[in-house]
Request: fold
Amino acid sequence: MFMLLVGVTLAQTPSTQTEQHTRLKVAGSWQEGKAICDSSDPQNPQVVLLTAPQNQQVQLWWWNKKTPHNLLHQQYHLGEPEGAAGSVYEPLVWSGAATGDAYLRSSQPGAQAHPERVFTTPYTSIRWNNHTVSCRWFEGITFMGVTQKRSVYITLQTNGQYQYQTFDFASNSSKPSLTLKNGKTSGGDNPVYTFTNGRYVYRVHTASTPAVEVFKSNRLLLKESFVAFTTAQP
Reply:
């Protein structure tokens, strides 16, 4: 697992200039990083993590959602970003020679339907070793996190309310496993998000020990720690 603080080029920075932080935890230690890619394709259920560049070197970690403990790794040199048709391509160079088909791709915030609601970098895909993973992304994301069992997205809706969505790895679907609306936030740099569904309360903690908790009638039913997450302040 690793801890990351996202650094992006001006072309990739969300148009609202929000403060965005990404943290990943891999192999027991937190590291600064660059991107999280939660596959949106049920036929290719991958999670991909990319560390922040150190002397232009980045570490790529990935695993299949069906086998989260089988963590794979490869090192790349991160090339200079190139813009094309509303997208930004950052080449991934292996063994000193670019293959031309390994890259991290993001969409320009201005290419989105509502640029003012782009709070996190719109990573759209990553390709390496002849694998291409399409990344799940939404407008209005203020938090996205991945546990070993699911991904969680919290978005700020146009009505000013927060929405909670989960995508359970076991169901392996492009549709959310659960959607809750009218969430509340504690505010601050490390907010706690709270969503109520009848007698159930869902809490997402974004501080140094990020986790999602589920309570029923004030009794803790579930707690899962995030192995990777991104936060943004609108």
Q: What stands out?
A: Residues 1-17 have pLDDT under 50 and may be disordered. The chain has two domains: 19-134, 141-233.
